[in-house]
Design goal:
This protein is α+β, with helices and mostly antiparallel strands and about 160 residues long. It is about 30% helix and about 30% strand. The protein has one domain: Gcn5-related N-acetyltransferase (GNAT) (Aminopeptidase, 3-Layer(aba) Sandwich). The chain has a six-stranded mixed β-sheet with strand order 1-2-3-4-6-5, sandwiched between helices. It is globular and about 35 Å long. About 30% of the residues are buried. InterPro entries: Acyl_CoA_acyltransferase (IPR016181), GNAT_dom (IPR000182).
Amino acid sequence: MQESDLSEAALVHQSAFVRQRRSFEWLQCNLKAFPRYMIYVAKLDEQPDSKVVGYIIWAQKSGFRPESVLELEQLAVLPECQGQGVAKALILESLPLVKQQLAEQDSVLKHVLVTTRADNFAQQLYKKTLGAEVESTISNLYSADEVLMIARNVGDTIQ
């Protein structure tokens, strides 16, 4: 993600997370926290003026370590683009870039964790693309019950 993507990405955030506020500021502060947070966008095509239709935020957890634990912090796709493989592409196409950034920090990817609502169908996406499994349920965390999913030892399995 570039600064120039923030306004469009904020619209994606607003449409995906209706209970959250100040979308632009949320994304802007995360973008400024690189490399702790690594954010990638999906666009309709490769043209410079193409519209942002989704984004993904990866976060390094618990410091910069030789073996990094990442959190798939947030994944959002415009409602009209859902069900078209955008979310899967964001995961699979951004993860090699994240691994490259980790390598530049003399680190390798160990695990990926994800928290999501217990009723979110995206759990199947995380299981299928990352091999993430539900480890625990956290009652009434944000707007409902959340599940903590972990994909263990994914550094070698996902290119």
